[in-house]
Amino acid sequence: MSPRLFSPAGVLYAVVSLQIITAGTLASPAERALGRSLDRHKRYSTGGLYTGPFFDPTSPNNITTQLGTHAYLPCKVKQLGNKSVSWIRKRDAHILTVDHYTFIADERFQSFLVEGTETWTLQVKYVQARDQGEYECQVSTEPKMSHFVTLNVVVPKIEIMGASDIYVKTGSTVNLKCVITQSLEEPAYIFWYHDGERVLNYKPGTKDIRVERSGTDTTVGTLVLYGATREDSGNYTCSPSNLDSASVLLHVLNGEHPAAMQRGKNSASPIPGRWWGHMSVGLGLRSLLSARQTCAAVVLLTALHNLLAFAGL
């Protein structure tokens, strides 16, 4: 039936009739046009101003944050009235929050309203790489209104300059530089660990730890070892706050050559040449000494070899 608009009663009849018909699929073009006109009448006041909820066009669509920091995704809704605001993670359609209520076990997510700003903000604490993606801010109108925000996660690169194995002589000054690039923020701290124990620079003149910012996206943490000793050998790990770590192996040599040291580690022969020479001498004495005396001589020669090797001779 075509709507009639000749009297107030006719207007009322047209409205009621439209609500019934548009619920199905048989609305005529005239009825659909009348529905749009009435919808505009509902959403705008007589002065032409928008009276229903709508998203502030200045709300950002992209937010970039660094791995391990906190991210804040704003959604500014004007004239919200009694409607609810939900945040939905698009990749799995998981409802994260509705107003102040959280509907995910991950406690890193929460939504809050800053009074006077009309902005519902989704907070993501300690951002992980998998948090990157699109998030939907949805208002409970009919039909639903949605504003999408893309979260970009920047993952800094961490490395200790130089080779993974560092060889130095006893008494040398060692500089280990941990370089963090592509970082939006300087880490709150950079800890150094030696064989799993944190390195502290409590003794001036023996160790020094420095942190400096270089450019807009690079931080350099330096560990200095003065007068390195054999005890300083081992694994050194650079561990910035909320980021991955990087490690190197430091070898403090007492006169040995690095290549010779590596061959000694990887040698298939269980008896080094010098040790075998002493053992051969001991075995040669067997013709002159008893078995017990020969064994004692071999043990003595072996102990002497180990003492000389420790002294670097």
UniProtKB/TrEMBL annotation:
<feature type="domain" description="Ig-like">
    <location>
        <begin position="53"/>
        <end position="150"/>
    </location>
</feature>
<dbReference type="InterPro" id="IPR037448">
    <property type="entry name" value="Zig-8"/>
</dbReference>
<dbReference type="GO" id="GO:0050808">
    <property type="term" value="P:synapse organization"/>
</dbReference>
<dbReference type="InterPro" id="IPR013106">
    <property type="entry name" value="Ig_V-set"/>
</dbReference>
<dbReference type="InterPro" id="IPR003599">
    <property type="entry name" value="Ig_sub"/>
</dbReference>
<protein>
    <submittedName>
        <fullName>Neurotrimin-like</fullName>
    </submittedName>
</protein>
<dbReference type="InterPro" id="IPR013783">
    <property type="entry name" value="Ig-like_fold"/>
</dbReference>
<dbReference type="InterPro" id="IPR003598">
    <property type="entry name" value="Ig_sub2"/>
</dbReference>
<dbReference type="Pfam" id="PF13927">
    <property type="entry name" value="Ig_3"/>
</dbReference>
<keyword id="KW-0732">Signal</keyword>
<dbReference type="InterPro" id="IPR007110">
    <property type="entry name" value="Ig-like_dom"/>
</dbReference>
<dbReference type="Pfam" id="PF07679">
    <property type="entry name" value="I-set"/>
</dbReference>
<dbReference type="GO" id="GO:0032589">
    <property type="term" value="C:neuron projection membrane"/>
</dbReference>
<dbReference type="InterPro" id="IPR013098">
    <property type="entry name" value="Ig_I-set"/>
</dbReference>
<feature type="domain" description="Ig-like">
    <location>
        <begin position="156"/>
        <end position="249"/>
    </location>
</feature>
<dbReference type="InterPro" id="IPR036179">
    <property type="entry name" value="Ig-like_dom_sf"/>
</dbReference>
<feature type="signal peptide">
    <location>
        <begin position="1"/>
        <end position="27"/>
    </location>
</feature>
